[in-house]
Amino acid sequence: MTGPERGFLLLCSHLGDPERKVLTTAQFRKLSQLVSSAQPVEKDRELTAKDLKALGLREEMALRIVKLLEEEERLDRYLSRAAREDCHVITLFSPHYPRILEDRLGLDAPALLWCKGDPALLAGDCIGLVGSRELEPANASFAHQAGIQAAMQSITLVSGNARGADRAAQEGCLNAGGRVISVVADGLNRHSRRENLLYLSEDSFDLEFSAQRALSRNRLIHSLGFATLVAQSSLKHGGTWDGSVKNLRFGWSPLFCYEDGSESIRMLCQMGAESVDAEALKNLRNLRPTPSLF
Question: Is the pLDDT of residue 146 over 90?
Fold first, then answer.
């Protein structure tokens, strides 16, 4: 691991402690700009709070940054634990970092991603799939067939490993010989390595599940693919609804909803999503938004 990557982890990773007061991606980029425009610190000398204050940072932020950078031993212990769990990290400096996240999310792109599996899966064509945990039979079939068709068309499926639509699609894809990226809301250390499956987690490899993490990871599922499929959604509540509405608001990816006659899908389509049937899954790369007439 390079020096810049270590510094990045010290400043931006919770290192398994959600109470660790790390920098946001935006704060880190501002710091990088200030440091790159300043005179370099003398060789073999540590950066001090005085150096940072000279760049225009407030004393509280300068002291916070220095404290974070001092935790080298903590970082080494964390990296050693990660290696024992077969987990590794991708930072903004890493060649495997998916630049599509920067393009679509800007400063809200994750500063780093923890992985279990082959990060090369991030390089190919991807399509996202989201959906409810409790599925109607037709919606479950749609999710499962979406996974199978992704495999048959050499497209990597991106989902969230939740019960219901996520797992129906993932298992369909993997059983058909396809590739899956699963963005989880719990610890990577809870999951066993599996062929053609890449587990991703924001920030840390061992944080426990939380509703906030589940909602936050939705933007990654919606942003990693050339399109996102919605197998089923509750109306105005739940992670699928929340992520889909935010996708439509911020334009992370074109959104296509399985037409099941529900009020929730009708409302998503009124907001800008498009409805599709199971037949549309036979050529996933043809899923493109209908051009506006106005």
Answer: yes
Domain residue ranges of the chain, discontinuous segments joined by +: 3-84, 119-286
Question: Do 178 and 203 meet the contact criterion of CB atoms below 8 Å apart?
Answer: no
pLDDT, tens only, 108-117: 898 889 999 9
Contact of 228 with 258, CB cutoff 8 Å:
no
- Per-residue b/e over 183-200, b at no fewer than 16 CB within 10 Å? bbbbbbbebeeeeebbbb
Work out the burial of residue 76: count CB atoms within 10 Å of its CB; fewer than 13 is exposed, 13-18 middle, 19 or more buried: exposed
pLDDT in tens, 41-68: 555 567 788 888 988 889 999 999 999 9
Rounded Cα distance, 130 and 220, in Å: 11
Percent of the chain with pLDDT over 70: 96
Which of 6, 31, 34, 9 has its CA nearest to residue 20?
A: 9
Can you name the residues that pair with 255 across neighbouring β-strands? 228
The residues pairing with 18 across neighbouring beta strands, listed in sequence order, are none
Question: Three-state DSSP class for 181?
Answer: strand
Domain at 119-286, CATH class: alpha beta
Provide the pLDDT for residue 46. Answer: 75
